[in-house]
């Protein structure tokens, strides 16, 4: 995935008239240093947060919230087919110009 990001993002910042390898190396090094820095921030924050999350009251609330989110996702997935049929029905009754706008959007 990182290779696809580099291939899509980095060429915008590389000048064709200058040597490309040093430019690419600088961009890649900068990106790597920033990404690894954020990984250290996440690890340090996770270590501190784990102490807080191990409390029984916090764990209970966290489990209820995440459980509710998953139940909500399940409800959306259960109704997804009916929603898509509703949207298609509306598009079929729409005027042709509006239909084209809906497809392009």
pLDDT < 50 runs, ≥5 residues: none
Number of domains: 2
Indicate the multimeric state: single chain
Beta-strand proportion: under 5%
End-to-end gap? 27 Å
Fraction of helical residues? over 70%
What structural category do the secondary elements indicate? mainly alpha
Number of helices: 4
The Rg value, from CA coordinates, equals 24 Å
Mean pLDDT: 79
Q: Mind explaining what this structure looks like?
A:
- The protein has 105 residues and is mainly α.
- The protein has two domains: 54 residues, no CATH class; 51 residues.
- Helices cover 85% and strands 0% of the residues.
- The chain contains four helices and no strands.
- The radius of gyration is 24 Å and the shape is flat.
- The model has no long low-confidence stretch (mean pLDDT 79).
């Amino acid at each position: 995935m990182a290779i696809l990001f580099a291939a899509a993002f980095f060429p915008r910042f590389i000048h064709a008239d200058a040597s490309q390898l040093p430019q690419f190396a600088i961009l890649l090094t900068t990106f790597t240093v920033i990404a690894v820095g954020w990984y250290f921030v996440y690890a340090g924050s996770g270590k501190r947060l784990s102490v807080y999350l191990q409390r029984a009251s916090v764990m209970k609330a966290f489990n209820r919230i995440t459980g509710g989110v998953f139940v909500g996702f399940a409800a959306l997935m259960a109704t997804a087919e009916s929603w898509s049929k509703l949207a298609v029905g509306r598009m079929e009754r729409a005027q042709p110009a509006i239909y084209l706008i809906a497809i392009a959007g």
